[in-house]
Write a structure and sequence with these properties.
Metalloprtase-TldD/E_C, protease, Zn-dependent protease, 23% helix, single chain, 10 helices, hydrolase, alpha+beta, seven-stranded mixed sheet, TldD/PmbA_sf
């Protein structure tokens, strides 16, 4: 009996077939997305649903005389069936191309390249993970979702480029609910399951849960010292990444960080952001067929590089640096500070400890001014001690304040926050972030 082909071998076989089926001067690019994931849903600390998903798909682009068209198809995992599906897709695109205009901003990478990266660290044993979750959540109402498994990406082109990437990872996203309806939200993700690190994360969540017993502390609108935990800071960064570092947004003057890149504003010298592909789960090549590299986006509070996709490069005369089509970071890493975990409350003194934020939007995008709500475990702290939970409040403040003039310290420990999205398939996007202590956060209601 023959050994089943691996995903990489199946993809390579399809690329070779497509290379022979193309009629010069046609060109093609072929993308691959796949996963073999295990999903487990928890309610009241018990497994309520478990399942596995194995899927793979192709995205084929056919190019001829400046025209191009795309089609996506699901793979069956059977070479003959998949070649037939690819042949049908190729015929469909050939019929479509004559109906389309030429694209003036199409910029194919003419260089052949090869990239192969398989991060296949052994994933945690499911039985062991379940036992640790069961033990750590004993006596509390835990609701959560655990996902684990390899995610694969491939890319090939008629110009001789070929890339393959596989990353094994897990992501446990959970909440601990109090009988009064309030909750503490937490997550633990990565490639290597560390029992001690998970236990510490769960213990912190349980400690925060115990404070939700206390009567709510009423706050009036105003300015308060605040500590933003990494999960809260991630919400701020998610908004900034929406066009903040994009070459297209900067060229069209629509970036929320326009003033930073123009040199008219700056962040705190403590702040540095990198697109750190080399130490992440993300592939070292883009879906547009360009190798990716580590980029310094902001260094010591001042803007440096932009994220440049092929279309922005063609339109604005820039050099492609492997950014994806949306020009948003997929492996954002913020430099750590010196504030140690044990000293956070002491350094905060009196103010707000904010675990999570949500419903963020821009109240003044050119000024990078954000508004949003506190969520889950937000506490009032006095003299370095948590006194009471705080009701949901709205904040409205500028990033140039929160990460600029009012930033006091960043934590020495950073948290890896993987995308929990399972839309279409699991993702490899990540944020590596510290917590931030700010002198002033403005609450409006």
């Amino acid at each position: 009996m023959s050994t089943p082909l691996s995903q990489a071998e199946q993809f390579k076989g399809l690329v070779e077939w497509l290379g022979k089926a193309i009629l010069a001067p046609e060109q093609f690019t072929l993308g691959y997305n796949g996963e073999a994931s295990e999903f487990i849903r928890f309610n009241k600390g018990k497994v309520r649903q478990a399942g596995q998903v194995q899927q793979a798909s192709l995205s084929l682009k056919l190019i001829h005389d400046g025209r191009h068209a795309d089609v996506n198809l699901t793979l069956a995992g059977e070479p003959n069936v998949d070649k037939q599906r690819l042949a049908d897709a190729l015929r469909q695109l050939r019929d479509t191309l004559p109906l389309l205009p030429a694209d003036p901003y199409l910029l194919l990478n003419p260089q052949p390249w090869n990239s192969h990266n398989v991060q296949n660290q052994p994933l945690p044993d499911t039985a062991r993970v379940l036992e640790e979750i069961r033990s750590a959540s004993k006596g509390v109402d835990l609701v959560g979702f655990y996902a684990s498994g390899p995610i694969s990406y491939g890319y090939a082109s008629s110009e001789g480029a070929f890339g393959w990437h596989q990353a094994n990872s897990f992501n446990f996203d959970w909440s601990l609910f109090h009988s009064n309806g309030q909750a503490v939200k937490a997550s633990y993700a990565g490639a290597d399951w560390d029992s001690e690190r998970f236990a510490r994360r769960m213990q912190l969540a349980r400690e925060q849960l115990s404070f939700l017993d206390r009567p709510l502390h009423a706050l009036a609108p105003g300015e308060y010292r605040a500590y933003l935990a990494p999960a809260a800071l991630e919400e701020v960064m998610s908004m900034l990444c929406w066009g903040g570092f994009s070459a297209q947004a900067l060229a069209s003057k629509s970036s929320p960080l326009q003033k930073l890149y123009a040199g008219d504003a700056q962040l705190s010298p403590l702040v540095s952001f990198d697109e750190q592909v080399s130490q992440s789960l993300s592939p070292a090549f883009s879906g547009e067929g360009y190798p990716r590299q580590d980029l310094s986006l902001v260094k010591h509070g001042k803007a440096e590089q932009q994220l440049v996709s092929s279309r922005s490069a063609a339109e604005y005369g820039l050099e492609v640096n492997g950014a994806p089509e949306g020009e948003a970071p997929s492996a954002l890493a913020m430099a750590a500070g010196s504030l140690v975990q044990a000293d956070i409350l002491k350094q905060l003194g009196t103010g707000l400890y904010i675990s999570n934020l949500w419903y963020l939007n821009y109240s003044d995008q050119p000024a990078a001014r954000l508004t949003g709500m506190t969520r889950f475990a937000t506490f009032w702290v006095e003299n370095g001690e948590i006194k009471a939970p705080v009701n949901t409040m709205r904040f409205d403040d500028s990033v140039y304040s929160l990460l600029g003039s009012q930033l006091e310290a960043l934590t020495a420990e950073r948290e890896l926050l993987l995308s929990a999205s399972t839309y279409d398939q699991r993702q490899t996007a990540s944020n590596l972030l510290p917590g931030a202590l700010v002198k002033k956060l403005t609450l409006t209601l």
